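Per reviewer request, we include the raw input and output of the structure prediction for the construct analysed in the revised manuscript.
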Amino acid sequence: MAVFEVRVPQMGEGLQDVRILRLIKAAGEPVRKDEPIYEMETDKAVLEVECAVAGLVSRWIVEVNDVVPIGSVIGYVQTEVAEAAPDPSGGAGHPSASEPTSAEVTPAPSRNAAITPRTRAYARSHGMSDEALGDLAMSLGRKVTDADVAAALATSRSVPSEPVQPLRAPYMAVPVPDYQRKLVHRLVQSSRAVQPAVEELPIEWSSVERAHGAAKRAVRDATGCTPTPFTVLAWCVARAVRDFPRFRSVYHNETTLWQYDHLHLGVAVTREDDELLMARIADADALEFAAFAAAMHRAVKHAKAGHDQTTDVMQLSLTNLADTGLRRGVPVVVAPAVATLFVGAPFHEPIPGPDGSVRFRRIANLIMTFDHRVVNGVGAARFLNAVRAKAEGVEAELGLP
């Protein structure tokens, strides 16, 4: 038997890494030549990679959602020498126990689809580097023309260049952690698709705090976990989604939304060294408060232990920075989620009276970033008002005196 390396193939100029979406064949399963063995996501497409040999999947050294560099080995297949695939470099190499070969894949769209070969040749002939041409394409947000290249070159020549000063300040090269690479990959993918919009609404926070104080002992006795005021607010959000199906949907394509029966609610959890993971509460809108609090407690505890629970069916997420004292912040919505809701630190807002007196009310700001492809401004405002109504009436919702 020979050992065949399953590698991430080169998919286009400038592509650096991909995300593993699915391991189609498990370790120990047979695989036929040209049969899909795993699925990956690039900047432009989601595609299945075919195995170039027939054999038995020996093992995988990656997991689903891992972001891996182009060319890296992600698994191994045991195969007969006679089943060897051609050398990916173009030769006629054969696999052996000491010289594994690589997987093949159907060609994918180039990452630089906005730059035609003719324009690239024109830019090179006039002294523009590929990196500068890529930056020009990103800034324009459309297909680059020869005229765009000429204009950019003329502008750069009109600005006198300054001598580059050597970097003298001491520094240390710090590797980007794996969890951050995964998050960055999701953020970059979302930035190319999501059309974000933001709305803000203050809510009366004292009712949330009163409900928390009245209900926490009963919940602790019933479930063994102690809810927080944020737990109460999160439950109100889940209850509000019952009447707003767009907030339990995801954008599938230009003609179709996938509307789910229930909400899978995400909660951002921060660990040491600013590590951000997601906790997930499945069917959150179907849970009564005690069950919701217990499910949220388990999910957050799991995330704090280092287990990210991000999935493709988490339609709405919450981020709570009350402990930092931050009252306002604009969250980022990461596809396929339709929205992210920021909960600010509660504070006392002064309200002047007609007689010159001043009273205070305890409020917190809700700031929501939502995907305009799925939800419009009025729909988002109605949802935020429904959340406020649930929060300010949560004592009655819980049956508290």
